[in-house]
Amino acid sequence: MQIYQVLILIVSALASPITLNERRYFQDQNGAIRIFHGFNVVYKQAPYIPKTEGFDYMESFSEEDCQILSKNGFNVIRLHVSFEGAMPKRGELDEEYLDKILMIVKMAAKYKIYVILDAHQDLFNRQFCGNGFPDWAVDKKDFPFPKTLQIRFNEQGYPILEDCYQQKFALYYSTNDIGRHFEMLYSNQNGLADYYGQFWQRVAEKHKDEWNVIGYEILNEPSPGNFQKGIIDFFWPGLANQKYLVPLYKLIHNYIRKVDNEKLIFFESDFLDVLGAGFDSNIGGQEYLDKEVFSYHVYCGIEKISSVFCNRINQLMYYLKMRNVNDLKIGGFLTEFGAVGDDEQSKEILDYILDKADSYQQSWTYWQYKGYNDHTTMSTMYEEGLFYEDGSFQKQKLSALRRPYAYQICADSIETNQYYSETREQVVKQKCLFQMRLINHKSLIINAQIANCF
């Protein structure tokens, strides 16, 4: 065994499409294993897309932002492509909106930044204090019943956001109207799921030849059903995944595969599946095991607790999520975590979960790059992002996220690709290593071990 204190081999940075290899690592067209670190870029409210000119601490994703990410070693974004933005009228796709999404994808490619296209939703629609699905898909009856909150509505029928903030957004999932609308989606009432599939088919058709698009995430944090009609379905571990989500995911999978049989499809369990029940099988069958990724989120879910307690929760949740990935025999990606402030306790939470991600050799996207006027978050739009109002970095947060990592590794498999936050030591161990590309920062000890190569 040869041990090198420093191993940084400078090789050409070729743009390359991403697939999964037989061990379910992400790999490029040269067969190198790839690791991704980056951010969510999710603008939930109209116009459902960030500003693409100049820099704004709250609203932009522009050339300047791409430069900031690239300069600091980040190589992926999870970009919201909105169903309500893309199909504002039933069955009619807005090509101008979709072209704007494609423009951001191409802009990111100039800086070798990869993209996961994510159809984001929280609480289904703005009429329910949320986002995600178009107004034409909504038949509001009694929101926020059975809650007794006093909520005012504007002329468009949308709740005043100030009133929505009376409680944490996730608690609205127990309301009658939101439950009914997820039932409508899962049962394909009025063809809603088919319209959703047509939306995804067009998104895939427009992006199938973009080398930096890793894949398509079908639906963010889906509800486990209608709390008011089926409490067992809502809370029983894994039941909603099999009963509701698998049929929906298979339908959307089929729409996407009509036009793109190569890019990866990402899918999540229902947002209450914290016990890690997961799924019994992947959505496309054996043929697509190497083209699917289990997207998972890790939040301790309790505010104002110590970082020690939060990290114990995260430790259990991460273990359960990785059990899902291993059972499914597909890829895994930590697509959300964080939504924290810029203080020492928040940094401890980030350090812990990112050390854990390294230990599982997992890629990640932090929630989120900027506030983007986010009205459905467990944090605040001013706290969760990377910047203060004056445009300066939230430094403790950046120091946790801007961590060294080997992002391109020519190896048969990875034994260790671990950065230790406490000791600031990076350890990389591979079997049959030939080349490694490393994001490095100051004051770092690097140990790379090469085994069984010659």
Automatic annotation (TrEMBL):
Coiled coil: none annotated. GO terms for molecular function: hydrolase activity, hydrolyzing O-glycosyl compounds. Residues 1-15 form the signal peptide. Keywords: Glycosidase, Hydrolase, Signal. It comes from the Eukaryota. GO terms for biological process: polysaccharide catabolic process. InterPro entries: GH, Glyco_hydro_5, Glyco_hydro_5_CS, Glycosphingolipid_Hydrolases. Pfam families: Cellulase. Residues 62-371 form the Glycoside hydrolase family domain. Belongs to the glycosyl hydrolase 5 (cellulase A) family. This is Glycoside hydrolase family 5 domain-containing protein.
